[in-house]
Amino acid sequence: MPLGLLALAIGGFGIGLTEFVIAGLLPEVAADLRVDEAAAGWLISGYALGVAVGAIVLTAAVIRRPRKRVLLGLMVLFIAGNLVSATAPDYQVMLLGRVIASLCHGAFFGIGAVVAADMVPRAKRSAAIAVMFTGLTLANVLGVPFGTFVGQAYGWRATFWAITGIGILALAGIAALVPASANGAGGTSLRGELRSFRSGQVWLSLVVTVLGFGGMFGAFTYIAYTLTEVGGFASGAVPWLLVLFGGGLFAGNIAGGKAADRRLDASLIALLAGLAVVLAAFALLAWSQPATMVLLVLMGGFGFGTVPGLQTRIMNYAPGAATLASSANIAAFNVGNALGAWIGGAAIAAGLGYTSPLWAGSGLTVLAVGVLAVAAFAAARQNAAAGRDAGTGEAGARGRTPQPAS
To answer: Span 176-194, mean pLDDT?
Structure first.
């Protein structure tokens, strides 16, 4: 494994930590900054909006810059945002720090995925991307519980000081370990990058990401209510149960990356179909505590197992101009999060109960399977046609390029 992947994973760990740890510290932050729960919630919502905006706008702004230098600049932005949060004298400055830190999120993972894929042979691209996203999964498994403990024991600002330190470590790691060749990879023009969005496969990939991740995180957003109100768990048990979910994220990410390198579309269809089944089973068995613990692991595993493959797929269909498409897919993950949360919340508000987000998530995931099946079928037909044309010498005349194989 190239050591540069480790540096990217450390960066992913810090970014994942700053995104998720705030949820466990909201009561302390709200009390200290003298705001109500609704205002404090914008420290999460504002971050998510910043991710979606930064993924597109910031990536477009730096598209012709050397990628390694861009990654270093993004980590500086991340450090600055968390430093502002750690020293914020009031709510407005705290929110500003959250937004500053969020802007680097989408661009870092989008550009980082391209850099990670370029470090290894083509047959191992998804596995390399999975290594980078390992930092994000470990942030859920280890970082969030530890960060919450630090914040509760020493004050919430201590957590953001710690995250700032992780950002400095990642900055040093990227500078030292990401190969210098990554600096020469970012020469595509913005027009060239935008041209990749003419591909129907790119748009279908984005839709699959929105629906698939919307299914999982729509259910996950309200999981605490499902666990306590339906499963009968004590509220104090919820953080430890979420460690099970995080363990599933970690295992699924690694396994999904390896599976995607073998058969991309087939593995994604299998994982999404498995996620739909798991969410439906969870809705039926949420009253059973033993079943709930198993299904939390499976939910995380099948859900995050799709991430390396979804990221690889959109990059495959934007050859030579993958940076903006890759970042757009990171934005699509966050759009899916928002969509799933909205649908799940609407289902609860309609009086359908605390298992309704699981049913809604299963439905969204079934839609993702359908869209991906259509996309895979269209790609297979295009590949077959391109192969026939190449055999008769017509490919060059027609200007067709066979799409990547599934």
So the answer is: 68
